[in-house]
Predict the 3D structure of the following.
Amino acid sequence: MENLDKLIETVRILRSPEGCEWDRAQTHKTLKPNMLEEAYEAVDAIDTGDMANLREELGDVLLQVLLHSQIADDNGKFNLDDVAKELNEKLIHRHPHVFGDVKVNSTDDIVNNWDLLKKEEKKDRKSAMDGISKAQSALMSAQKISKRAVKTGFEWPDEKSLYECVFSEIKEFQDAKGDKDHMEEELGDILFAVVNLARWNKIDAEQALLRANKKFMARFRKMEELAEKPLEQFSFEEFDNLWKQAKKNVNEC
């Protein structure tokens, strides 16, 4: 752990009066965008399979943890050792099948135990909706909300009824045409219903949309390559033909 100790000391120096003016000026709030950005960049590295890049991005994520811990230490709130101690205790407590004498027969048993132990730890929570992060994307929040509701037994009886819900929400969106505020509300209901459809099929909606974004961008770039005139001059029919060519030339992402 020699290198980790050196890194911790480097961050401490950067935050000290003899350190970096920029680092000293940072707060938990000013670093919020950095925390999100570094996490997403690490995910990108995982998706590309670039291990050298992943190593670098994990370092950037670790830097955020160290900076926030040092800021808290500077303010007399807690330090990195407190963070590590609490995490270690939580991991041991939530893995009684490893560190205790609890017997499990499947990963479902492990997840159920985890949820029960977490509920035991969070006794101050009165609602199943408590503790859902407000900082994550709306799509990720929708998945979390849906999963929390299902754990209480609030679930569609079958997939057919879920499809009917999606189609019903689309119809309500169509009926709201002309009323922008109502349309926005109904569109939100469509998206929430689709998130539940993803959950029902054990698909991560966030990853599915990221994949769709990546695929669309790759195909659009191919369209730009294939186009023999500015895209702004294309008719709908020409766009349609160009899109079909791009699909044939770009592998699925």
About this structure: Residues 15 and 21 are 8 Å apart (CA to CA). The radius of gyration is 24 Å. DSSP finds twelve helices and no strands in the chain. Residues 207-249 form one domain.
